[in-house]
Amino acid sequence: xxxxxxxxxxxxxxxxxxxxxxxxxxxxxxxxxxxxxxxxxxxxxxxxxxxxxxxxxxxxxxxxxxxxxxxxxxxxxxxxxxxxxxxxxxxxxxxxxx
Length: 98
Fold this sequence. Notes:
Blueprint: H1 2-22, E1 27-35, E2 40-45, E3 56-62, E4 76-84, E5 87-95
Parallel strand pairs: 3-5
Antiparallel strand pairs: 1-2, 1-4, 2-3, 4-5
């Protein structure tokens, strides 16, 4: 019985996390700098509604360092960002056609 409850709770937590990430708004931006050693990216971006942030240029952490291998300075991108452990973090990142 306890194992079933734990399994159900684990499934619920994973589903909630997936739903939360899926609801993050896509934001248009441009890569200014990629710092693979520090696992950070500098983006000029539009408004990020879920963080109540207006457009600007800033440095972000990335949730997965592999995201940085896909982009270079000057690339137009679409990304999602969220606050993770107190730091604004890029959760997903994809290039878009110029």
